[in-house]
Amino acid sequence: MEIVSSPDRMRALTREFRAQGERIGFVPTMGALHEGHLSLINRARRVATRVVVSIFVNPAQFGPQEDYKSYPRNPERDAERARLAGAHVLYSPTFRDVYPPGYRTYVAVERFGTTLEGASRPGHFRGVATVVAKLLGRVAPHVVFLGQKDAQQAVLLKKMIEDLEMDVEIEICPTVREEDGLAMSSRNVYLDADERRAAPVVYRALRRAETAVTREGERQAERVLDLLREVLALEQSVSLDYAAVVDARTLEPLPRLRGEVLVAIAVCIGSTRLIDNVILKVEE
Length: 284
Known about the structure:
Layout: E1 2-4, H1 7-19, E2 24-29, H2 35-47, E3 50-55, H3 75-85, E4 89-91, H4 95-98, H5 117-120, H6 124-139, E5 143-147, H7 151-163, E6 169-173, H8 193-198, H9 201-214, H10 221-232, E7 238-247, E8 259-269, E9 272-282
Parallel strand pairs: 1-4, 2-3, 2-5, 3-4, 5-6
Antiparallel strand pairs: 7-8, 8-9
Helix pairs in contact: 6-7, 9-10
């Protein structure tokens, strides 16, 4: 595996791969690699002949009171995990590589970036869209692999790629979970023992919502949300930021469930913010 920090070197490798007829798979990350990231790399290896993993903790997607400075960083461990998973290139640009002096250009996917996570974290998706657009420009992959846990991010990036006519496919891979259902996240390391014990209630709440829809025939979004909140209330340390039932493709609210439905949730447990979701296919 080659470790690359220079954008020019990354572009040269991309041109070389494409000239040789290689199919490039790309996994963008902020590091602190866990089994969820590794599952994306493994999937990329099955679909592509060259796999590029990027690590860049992007300050543009953090709010002023968020955890940019404390976000977990372990570049040596990440490099070894990426290598063992089968990545061919680890691209790790510096802040000045991505945002050189005088940088002024940002990408905003209107409406998709201002609901749910976007409402709770103003400017977050502007930062996400900008850095992913820049990474796609350097890596020039054929396919980019994203996790379902960040469902809104995936919808937004699909829209960005469509609207900007970027020549790249997106593949969304299933959320990888701990044995107790907690979605794997780099931020899970923030949880202390009591918080970690409480955290799986998030997935239990989503499963309760799923059961109501798929087995009990519930179609009213507000009733689904009430059931979800009832489960969350069983853990006093869990504070609900938002819960929503929306169209999985447009993120529009669905008072009555139909089609492909995203049930999304964000909570705070202590100082740690966690997100999760399920997608349901609903027949009226």
